[in-house]
User: Fold these one by one.
Assistant:
Number 1:
Amino acid sequence: MIPPFSFVRIPHIIFGAGKLKELYDIIPKFGNNILLVIGGSSLKQSGKWDEISSILKKKSINFSMLSILGEPSPNLIDDPVAKFRDRDLDLVVGIGGGSVIDAGKAISAMMTKEDSIKNYLEGVGNKIHDGKKIPYIAVPTTSGTGSESTKNAVISEIGPDGFKKSLRHDNLIPNIAIIDPELMISCPPSISAACGLDAFTQLLEAYVSPKASPITDALAYSGMKLTSKSILLACSTGASDLNVRSEMAYGSLISGITLANAGLGIIHGLASSIGGLFKIPHGVVCGTLLAEATKMNIEMLQKQGPTGKPGLRKHAQIGALLIGKYDTEENKINEYCMKLIETLEKWTKELKINRLGKYGIKEEDIDNIIEKTGLKNNSVNLNKENIKTIVLNRL
C-alpha cells in the first residue's frame, strides 16, 4: 500500500548545455533593473562574466553586480540589502556555487524587510518570513547543494556560539532555475569532489529517510544512478566532458528536490553544527562523514533485527546500484550494504577528501558538536556514542 505523502512545488527548471542564453530573454520579462550575485573569482576567471555582462549591456539591461566570498553570513546579506533596498530592483539573479545561490535567495527575500536576516533564521530569530521577495533566478555553476530547487537559504555565523541555520518559506523557491552544465566545466577537482559528495549525500539521506515517498525514491534513485557513474570522472579525466557534467548537474538538482520533500539525516545534522563552529566547506563535512555515517547507520539497523530490515533493504538497493545491479536479492542484503560502504570509502580516498582535523577540529570539541547536532530525518536512531564514533573516525 502506498503511504500518504505530500510534495512541495519546484521552480520552473531549464536544464541543458547552452541554456544560459535563455537568461537574456527571460530577464526583460521581470524588468530592466537587476542585481547579479556572483562568486569571488571563478566566473570571472572562466571568462563567463565578461560574456554575460557584455550581452546584458548590448540588450540595454541595467544591472548591478555583487560578489559573494565564502558561505553567506548575516552581515554578508544585511549589508548589500541595505545598499540596494531603495534601488527598485525588479529581479535578483544568482550565478555561482551553492553559497552564491543561497546568498541571492536570501537577498531577494530580505529586500522586502527593514531588519536583519538573523531575526528570521530558524532557531535563531523570533520572526517568521512571510514569503514576500524580489523575483529570483538561480543559475548554479557547481553540482552540489541543489539550492536552485529548494525553499531555504543557509546562513552561517562561525564561532563558539556560531550557527548554520535556514531562512525558509515556500515562496523563496527560485522563480526559475537554469542549469547549464557548460558552466561547471571550469570547476576545479577539489570543489567538484566536495560538491559531488554533498549531492550524493543528500540523495542517499533522502532515499533512506523515514519521510521518503515513492516520488522522492524514484527521483533520488535516478540521481544516484547518474552521479555514481560520473563523480570520479568529473574530478579527473571527464572534467571537460559535457555528459559527465550533465549527469552531476542532474544529480545535484534532484538532491535539492528530494531533500526538500524527504529531509536529511545525521550527516547534515553534523554539517550544521560543525559548520557553525568551524570554518570548513559544507561539502567537505558531508563528503568526509558520508562513508562513516552510512556504516554506522547500517550497523544500527542490523542490530534492530526484523525492525531494521526495511532500512537495510533501502541501503542495499543503493549498494547494488553502485555495482551495476538493479535488483536486490533478499539473501544478499548484507552483502550489498557492505558494497555501499566500500564504494563510499573508495570515493572518499580517491577524491582526497580532507579529514576534519585539517580544519582545527579536535577530540575535545566533539562533545560540544554533538550537543548542537540534531538527528533530523535519519534512517535509524543514533545515540551520542554512535555519533561520537562517526566524528572520531574522520578526525
Note: The chain is about 50% helix and 10% strand.
Number 2:
Amino acid sequence: MFKILKYSVYDLMRSRWSYVYLLFYLMLGFVLLFLNNDLSKAVITLMNIIVVLVPLIGTIFGIMYYYNSKEFTDLLLAQPIRRSSIFLGLYLGVAGSLSLSLIIGLGLPFLIYGLFKSGVIWDFSLLLLIGTSLSFIFTALSFNIAISQDNKIKGFGYTVLLWLFMAVIYDGLFLLSLIVFEEYPLDRFSIIATMLNPIDLSRILILLKLDIAALLGYTGAVFQKFFGTQSGLIIALCVLMLWTVFPVWRLLHRAERKDF
C-alpha cells in the first residue's frame, strides 16, 4: 500500500494541476493578507471559500485521477496484491496531496504575516483541519462514484451533482424545512440535519470558533448551545471522522466485490 501511495504522490507531483492548486492558495493567502492585515478577518474570508472550493476540487480531482489511472489500476489488479491495498494507496495519495497543497499554500502566507504572534492560531488550525477533512471526505466520495460507474461522463455528472447538492441544494431544503415547520421545536432536527452534511457541519464549527454564530439567528443559538461546548465540539469532529471512514470502508468493500 505504501509503495502505491508513494507512486501516487510522485505521479501527482508531475502533474501541473497539483502545482496550480498549491499556487492558487498561495496567491489567495498573500492577496487577502496584503489587502487586509487583520488575520481574523482573513480567516473568516477563507472559511467561506474553503467550505465550498475544497469539496469541489476534491470530487473533481479525485474522479479525474481515478479514471486517468484506470489502466495502471488494472495492471496492479493482475498482480498478487490485495485490492484494499491498491485502492487505499491510490486514495491516500490523492487526498494527501490535496491536503498538503492546502496546508502549505495557506500556511506560508500566514506564517510570514506573523501567525504565531497573533491570537488566531487556533482558529486557523481549525480551518486547516476542517479543510483537510473535507479533502479526504469528498475524495473518498468521488472514488466511490468512480468505482461504481465505469461510464466517465456519468461519473463526472454524478460527482458534480453530489457537490451541488451538498453545497447548495441541501442548504435550500434545510432552510425551507425550517420555514415550513417553524411552529414546531426544531432544535434536535437542526442539529441532526447539520451533521448529515459535512459542508454545513464544517461551516458551523468555524462560525462558532470565531464567535460569530449570532449571525445565524435562532439556529445559531441552538448550535452555540450544543456545538459550543467541549463535548459538542468532540462529537462534531467525530462525525467528520465518520464521514471519512464510512466512504473509505464502502470503497474497499466495493473494490473487493467488483468484477474488474
Note: The chain has a mean pLDDT of 82.
Number 3:
Amino acid sequence: MLIKLALPGFDPLALTTLRLWLAAALLGVFAVLAGQAGRIVPRDFALVVVAGVFGNALPFFLIAWGEKTAGAGLAAILMGLMPISTLVIAHFLTNDEPLTARRLSGVLIGFAGLAVLTGPALLSHLGEGIGQLAILAAAISYGFNAVITRRILHLPRLLLASLLLFVGAVLITPVALLAGEVRESASWTPVVALMILAILPTGLASLLMFKLIERQGAGFFGQVNLLVPVAGVGWAFLILGEEPQPRAVAALALILIGVAIARGKATHNVNASILPSKERKP
C-alpha cells in the first residue's frame, strides 16, 4: 500500500534506492550507538552481499515495478508465494527442513491459488501479467534470502541489518542514476509514504526477520508472510479503495489454505546449517 502511494512521486528505481539508503542510514546510526560497528570476515561479507541483493535491492525494485500495473491488494496476494517458495528452497539448501508429503500438498494448493489469480491476466493482458510475474519473482527472491540469512545470524543484529541495506543501496544506485527517471510530485503523500516505508517495513522489519529466522527457521518465517496478503488486501481496501475481485478472494483463500497445510506441526533445529543437496542427511 505504501509503495502504491509513493509511486506517483518516484519511479521504481528511485523509490528502491532512496528506501534502502534511508533505512541503512537509520540502522547504521543505531549500530554505531550500540557499539556494534566492526569488521567482518570475507566469507560473511560475501553472504551479506548475496542477501543484500536477494533480500533488499532486487525484490524492492521488482515489487515497485510490478505495482505500476498491479494494484496494491493484488501485489499483496501474489506475495503469498513467498512462504511456498521458501519451503521448496529450504528443502534443497538446508538439512533440517525437508519438503514432506504434507508440505508438498500445501505447495501445490498454493500454486493452484496463484494460477487462479494470474492465469487470466497472463493470457489476456500481457502488460498486467508481466507486472504480476515481477512480483512473483520478488516473492521467490525473498524465499531464497530467508534461507541464506541463516548463515549470517551470528553477526550483531544492527550491524547485519544496516550492512544488508547498505549493500543493496550501493548496488542499485548506479542503475538508478543511469536508468531512473525524475518525477515532480504534486503533494507530500509520496514523500511521507517513502519515509514510513524506509523506517517500518524496511528497517524495523529487517531486525524482526533475523529474530524469527533464528528462533523458528526459514520455513516458519516464510509462513509468517501469510499475513502479507491478508493485511495488504485490507489496507488497499481501507486506504486506496481497491475492492478485491471474486477471483482474487478465491486465490487468497487457496494460498492461505496451502500455507496452513504446509506448515503443519513441523519443528525446527536452530543449530542446523545450510548444506549442498548432496550433503543433506537422509
Note: Residues 266-282 have pLDDT under 50 and may be disordered.
Number 4:
Amino acid sequence: MVARASVPILLLTGFLGSGKTSLLARWLKAPEFAGAMAIVNELGEVGIDDRLVESSSDAPLLLDNGCACCAAGEDLTATLERLFWDRLHRKIPKFSWVLIETTGIADPGPILERLATHALVAERYHVEGVVAAFDARLGAAQLARHPECARQLKAARVVVITKTDIAGEVELAAARAAIAGVREDARVLTSSRADLSAAAMIAALAQSAPRPAADNGLRAEHTARVSTAFAAVPGVVTAAALTSAFGAVMDTYEAGLLRLKGIVRLAPDGALNMAQALPGVGVEISLLPARPGAPAPCGFTIIAQDVAAQTIADAVVARLAASRPLAYRNTG
C-alpha cells in the first residue's frame, strides 16, 4: 500500500516583539520554502504581520480572531482542512509546506495537540518542528515574567536568539543561560536583522532532539489579566507626533504595556506605515508594502497586562489629538 503524502508544518512561536514575522518574511523568500503556505495568527483589529509577509508568499492567511491555542484552535484546523480540499480540487496550487506563526502570547502545547488529534489534519499534515524566537535583550526578563515564554521554549526544538546586532555579550550570555534553563537540549541559533537563512534553520531542525513526550497534551497557560484594545487614528499624523505620543505612553505604562502596533498614514499621499512600540526598545516606523483592495483601517492594537488596554488606547488617542491641528489632521 502506497503511503499518502503528508505536508510538513513549521510552527513559529516566540513572545511579543521577538522578531517572528521578520524571520518568516525572510524564510518565505527562500528556495527551501518555494510554494509554501503561510498562516499568520494575530490579536486585535488591525492585521500587520500578514501585510509584512504578503510580498513573500502567494497566499498568506490571517487568523484574526485571537490566539490559536484558545478559541481559534478550531479555526486553525478548519483552515488546514480547507487548504487540503482546495488543493485536492485544484482550486489552489499544490503547496510544499505550511508555516504557522502564532501570536506572541500563544502556548504551543494545545496547538500541537489539536493538530495531532484532528483526524484529517493528522492524516494529511505532520509537524516537522517548532521554532521559537527569543529576543537577545529582552528575552530573559520576559521569560521571568510571562509563563508563555517558558511554554514556547519547552515546545521548541530550535530556538533563534534574535536581534543580536543590538545586544552585548552579557545580554547574549544571559539569553543563552535563560534558554538552557528551560530547554537545555534545544538547538540554539542566532539572528541579526533576521539574517538567519531558511537552510540553516531547517538543518538545525533536522539535527535537533524531538519534543519530549512529557510535553504532550499541555493545557494552555496564559499571563493573567491580559487585555487588548484598538485605538483608531484617522487622517494624517506626523512621525514626530507619533513618536512623542508613543514615548509618553511607554513611560506611563511601562509595567503593563506588552505591545503597541498598528498602521498609520504619515503623509497625505495615502502611503501607509507600520508603527510599533515596545518598552525597552523604542518606536519603529517603516513603510508598508502596497496591496490592492480596500485600504486597511488606520489605528493601533494595544496588548497590555494588569492595566486595561483600553486605558492605554485612550491615552494614545488623547496625545495625538492634543497635537492638532498641525500634526494630527483628519482628512476624511
Note: Residues 55-60, 64-72, 212-221, 325-332 have pLDDT under 50 and may be disordered.
